[in-house]
Design a protein that fits this description.
Layout (H helix, E strand, L loop, with lengths): L13 E3 L2 E3 L5 E5 L5 H20 L6 E4 L4 H6 L8 H10 L1 E4 L11 E3 L5 E2 L14 E3 L4 H8 L4 E7 L15 E7 L9 E2 L4 H13 L11 E2 L5 H17 L4 E6 L5 H18 L4 E3 H8 L8 E7 H10 L6 E4 L1 H14 L7 E5 L4 E5 L16 H14 L2 H16 L2 E2 L1 H4 L6 E2 L2 H10 L9
Parallel strand pairs: 3-4, 3-5, 5-18, 10-16, 13-15, 13-16, 14-15, 19-20
Antiparallel strand pairs: 1-2, 6-7, 6-8, 9-10, 9-17, 11-12, 17-18
Helix pairs in contact: 1-11, 1-12, 1-14, 6-7, 9-10, 11-12, 12-14
This protein binds NADP nicotinamide-adenine-dinucleotide phosphate (NAP).
The site of NADP nicotinamide-adenine-dinucleotide phosphate (NAP) has 21 residues, from loops.
């Protein structure tokens, strides 16, 4: 018997021929997450429900279904289960989900408090820092677990500026990109050998003696970076298909192939291969642009180009309007997504999604911000905009547009949460819940025949 209850007023989203079939009352599994997750979730739900109601006048409604992960899983399942199998199964079955941030232990400690993220060497009855009883043994990232178990191979991050958001660059409006980051392989595959162990020594001997490679120092920890043709091509295929569907001008393959030829360099080569073999009549490569079109982009085509990863960081700062969709490997994408979103105002407002074939989970991109737990204080913008991505994924564009309209108007009125307020002059500081309510108030409405 499942620990979550399926809403009676909802219906399952279907999937046929690579496309979702969305009922008017789709069941959407969600969990608010740890730390400040419940605060941002409450504000987000209010905003998304209001937008759907205003856009479709009751004809459409999301049937939210709470499932459990992180702290709430400990409360509903046995004491050490942070990612129950039935939570994974629910996302698979219902196909589209929304999630808040989760605590992820990072260091060499043994236990972690899921409320304040305190890292502990032993297991006290309650957390010495926040007094909560929700302490669990160190575990692997639940986020990574979800991505791997559901094969959510693309981490998708749209990055654009919202007028009025304080940010560190002079012309933030010039950056409007969508980053497709490969989500399953690269150094995140977790194939690492700890320095000093027997396994590490064996791998070291294999590399140096059998394969004839030089490792600079024998006291090295070792890691393996798998990059496959399958993993690279399905990610780049999704990025190109997205660019075509959304009439974006270009897809840039970002890699470090000048140094890592058989992993990052191969990623680039496999990218061009998939572009030329599967999208031949819809794309032009940068070389073809100059060789065959005199540098003038033919109408209706997507430009496929590639850039070295370190140069891309410079380019996004110096020539941001030359970039649109980016497709990259896991580690490059990790750095690049956070750097790009900082350019337009920070993680508090950056949305994200993890997408596979027929399953997608939309999520806040920041962490649990534990020092603000229960204070109704943090910016719910990231989860709200992830909800916008989710509405677009469902094909509910009118509701998505209303949320963006409400958010823009709220920021431009300088009624914002603490993180923006401290960087703006003359702004009014709102609580997390008040910010959500202000977005609803500023949405207006549209009459739409759905
Ligand atoms: P964090 O939770 O993202 O918070 C770092 C700082 O970023 C906060 O102290 C706050 O800055 C600012 N911030 C984050 N979210 C905000 C929001 N919604 N509104 C306004 N400001 C916000 O990073 P962390 O402290 O490194 O990580 C805490 C826990 O979250 C860790 O266990 C980590 O592993 C986990 N994490 C989870 C995810 C995920 O689930 N996707 C992602 C990243 C980290 P100020 O203090 O300056 O106000």
């Amino acid at each position: 018997m499942a620990k979550y209850s399926v809403p009676k007023n909802g219906a399952k989203i279907g999937y046929q021929n690579g496309k979702l079939t969305v009922p008017d009352n789709p069941i959407i599994p969600f969990f608010p997450g740890d730390g400040t997750g419940p605060d941002i979730w409450k504000a987000t739900k209010v905003v998304l429900d209001a937008a759907v109601e205003k856009a479709y006048k009751g004809k459409r409604k999301i049937a939210w279904m709470e499932v459990f992960a992180g702290l709430t899983a400990l409360q509903h399942y046995d004491k050490d289960t942070v990612l129950p199998e039935e939570t994974v199964a629910s996302f698979k079955e219902y196909r589209v989900g929304l999630k808040g941030p989760l605590t992820t232990p990072a260091g060499s400690f043994k236990f972690v408090c899921l409320v304040c993220a305190a890292e502990l060497m032993d297991r006290p009855a309650s957390c010495p820092k926040c007094k909560s009883e929700w302490i669990t043994p160190r575990f692997r990232s639940v986020n990574v677990g979800l991505r791997q178990k559901l094969d959510l191979y693309a981490c998708v991050r749209p990055v654009r500026w919202f007028k009025g958001v304080p940010c560190p660059v002079k012309a933030p409006e010039k950056l409007d990109i969508v980053i497709f980051r490969e989500n399953t392989e690269d150094i995140y595959a977790g194939i690492e050998f700890e320095q000093g162990t027997k396994e590490c020594r064996e791998v070291y001997d294999f590399i140096t003696q059998k394969m004839g490679k030089k490792v600079p120092f024998p006291d090295s920890g070792l890691g393996i970076k798998p990059i496959s043709k399958t993993g690279s091509q399905r990610l780049i295929r999704m990025a190109i298909a997205y660019a075509i569907a959304h009439q974006k001008p270009s897809v840039t393959i970002v890699h470090k192939g000048n140094i890592q030829k058989f992993t990052e360099g191969a990623f680039r080569d496999w990218g061009y291969e998939v572009a030329k073999t599967e999208f031949r009549d819809r794309i032009v490569t940068e070389a073809e642009l100059w060789d065959q079109h005199g540098g003038k982009m033919p109408a209706g085509k997507v430009l496929i180009k590639d850039r070295i990863a370190d140069q891309t960081f410079q380019q996004l700062l110096l020539r941001p309007d030359e970039y649109s969709v980016l497709a990259t490997t896991n580690l490059n994408g990790d750095y690049l997504s956070d750097a790009a979103v900082a350019q337009v105002g920070g993680l508090g407002i950056g949305p994200g999604a993890n997408i596979g074939d027929g399953v997608a989970i939309f999520e806040a991109t920041h962490g649990t911000a534990p020092k603000y737990t229960g204070k109704d204080m943090v910016n719910p913008g990231s989860l709200i905009l992830s909800g916008v991505m989710m509405l677009e994924h469902l094909g509910w564009q009118e509701a998505a547009d209303l949320v963006v309209k409400g958010l823009e108007a709220t920021i431009q009125a300088k009624t914002v949460t603490y993180d923006f307020e401290r960087q703006m002059t003359g702004a009014t500081k709102l609580k997390c819940s008040e910010f959500g309510a202000a977005i609803v108030k500023n949405m207006g409405s549209v009459a739409v025949a759905a």
